[in-house]
Amino acid sequence: MNIFRRITATVSGSIEQAATQLENHDAIVEVALKQTRAAAAKAKVRLTRVQRDGKRLAEKLTEHERMISVWETRARKVADSDEAKALECISRRNRERVLREETAAALADHEARERDLVKTVERIDEKLAELDGQRNLLRTRHSAAQAERALNKLEADSSCAVDDVLERWEMRILETEYATPALSTSDSLDDAFRGEEDSATLRADLDDLLGRNIDEES
Q: Does the pTM exceed 0.70?
């Protein structure tokens, strides 16, 4: 019993030490991953807002282009009958052109920033996947290394003791097997018939050997 207690204590101590170290490393990495995930979530929310802003700018640009066409059509329509009104239409068209250029410039700058933000979010996602994979790999390697170390220590410290225990166990089993009487499976009636049948067969073989003719003797 003392041997088994010593073996159990050795293994349990190694596993407990490995678990403590693994939990410490795991906790640190998990905190870092949690913080990175939170930052990634915020970045994705902001990206969605930026994309909405970009869509509004694109719609605004389309509206300016539409209004330019509208004011030009109106100017042509009243040019012969009302020059002053036609000139006002041209003025409105020119103002829409300025607004269109300003909106187009703002949209181009916005799209460039949006592309950069998309790339940043993609890099964050890739880094998260990479860190998570590395964490899982290191966790597995750490556990395997600690288990192998514990096994090596167990074999080095108590291999002889374990062999002795296993040998005594096998001897105890053999003693029990020898001490247990074998169950009789014989059948007396069957044995009697088999004996007579064997004797008859032997007599026939003997008569054949001696060249006897059973019919003649009888």
A: no
